[in-house]
Specification:
Length: 132
């Protein structure tokens, strides 16, 4: 199964109406309130390369540090030639994930990270990204 996502902006009133319609037809298994904080260079290098670097919060708690890349390959799948690479690291970031984060920075041509602590909270990660 392939996940498909559509984002649209609606008023609170419209959202509540749509939610009630959905609840009348389907059972709500789980609800969460997500917030994403994105990071980029001052020249928008990450975004201009069809990539994203973010911290995802779920119900107010920092859960993951995520890197996404969007690729187009017309020879891969005829019905949908778009491919999204996703690298998700759990927060707090532990030492065994430092290499994965550094490889993302290497691909983007960003400076080497000086990661010396055994783990990093989302606030510490945010401070590391400030000079981007």
């Amino acid at each position: 199964m392939e996940e498909k996502e559509i984002k649209i902006r609606v008023s609170n009133t419209t959202f509540e109406k749509l939610l009630e319609m959905a609840k009348s037809k389907y059972d709500l298994v789980q609800a969460s309130n997500q917030k994403d904080v994105y990071f980029d260079t001052d020249k928008m290098l990450i975004n201009n390369l069809n990539r994203g670097l973010r911290i995802r919060f779920d119900d107010g708690k920092a859960k993951t540090l995520e890197f996404k890349s969007l690729f187009y390959n017309k020879n891969a799948r005829k019905d949908n030639p778009w491919f999204i690479e996703e690298i998700a690291l759990l927060l707090p970031l532990k030492k065994n994930d430092f290499d994965k984060l550094q490889s993302v920075f290497n691909r983007l041509g960003l400076a080497e990270l000086k990661l010396i602590q055994p783990e990093y909270t989302h606030l510490e990660i945010k401070n590391l990204f400030e000079p981007l």
